[in-house]
Amino acid sequence: MTAVAETVLDAKTEPRPIDEAFLASVLSGLSKRQKTIESKYFYDARGSQLFDAITDLDEYYLTRAETALLKEQSAEIATLIGTGATLVEFGSGSSVKTRILLDALAALRLYVPIDISGEHLDAAAKQVAADFSLPVIPLHADYTSRFTLPHQVSRDRLVGFFPGSTIGNFEPDEAAAFLDRVRSLLGPAARLLVGADLQKDPARLEAAYDDAQGVTAAFNLNLLVRINRELGGDFSLEAFRHKALYNAEEGRVEMHLVSLADQSLSLGGRQIDFTAGETIHTENSYKYSLESFRELAQRGGWRSEAAWTDPEGLFSFHALIAE
Ligand code: TRP
């Protein structure tokens, strides 16, 4: 065997170092009475691909409704914002929805996309800078943690952008705390443009999170695939099933992985037992009314300036002003 071939083989067979924080989080979640896995672990490369596929599904009305709303209302939003503003986006991804706003916003000073995935972020930032001849300063950060804006960003006329109803993936108390942090980050006289999915018929909601093609199921089950690959888990994918249910009392869609049998697994030297029908709770997606969302915003120190909904009343988009 040549030296080169050996090197290649070694690189392949050498076990990757385990992400200890991921392992600790999974072990802690799976030892609770209601087992959980933190939803931030959905988004590896495959998870991000599957999520993009979710946003194209017939059942997943959220992306279509919000995109249509933004198109419909972008002129009015642009009038509210005026000129010389800086747009700060929380979880920018590939900035698809941002482009709708950028098309309409006059004489923006700067765009600051924030995302946890650095590679994706830099490519998207370059593309937006080129397409809109706009200064762009990408910020590689976990926007749910505490961080500061780059020093070049003056805290004048800052406008936050948080589409996708991602606010609904926080517990309401956390959402209020997040909104409060965003307010202090963006400074006085800031605005926040935020999308929030609306409460509606449970059947419609459940279909959006349990599509006929099984894309959302694959997205949820990908957590177990990741644990097997990255943490040396031995989950059998056939032994778990995706489940989405609307919890009317809490006003949220819950995502679970249901164990189809009594079973025991081993992970990180520990044994984890499941009874048949027991679930791992993987995500919540809270749904608001216009009024309950305004109340939430108020708790975070924001006042509602305007709100729009689509003709079917599926989705809402809010312009908030810092109090
Ligand atoms: N923010 C999205 C939502 O709540 C995230 C999402 C869509 C999601 N489908 C999912 C999260 C399925 C977990 C499982 O609509």
From TrEMBL:
This protein's UniProt keywords: Methyltransferase, Transferase
Gene3D superfamilies per UniProt: Vaccinia Virus protein VP39 (3.40.50.150)
EC number annotated for this UniProt entry: 2.1.1.44
Transmembrane segments: none
GO molecular function: L-histidine N(alpha)-methyltransferase activity
Protein known as: L-histidine N(Alpha)-methyltransferase
Gene Ontology annotations of biological process type: methylation
Classification via InterPro entries: EgtD (IPR035094), EgtD_Methyltrsf_superfamily (IPR051128), MeTrfase_dom (IPR019257), MeTrfase_EgtD-like (IPR017804), SAM-dependent_MTases_sf (IPR029063)
Natural source organism: Pelagibius litoralis
Gene coding for it: egtD
Signal peptide: none
The Histidine-specific methyltransferase SAM-dependent domain, residue ranges: 24-320
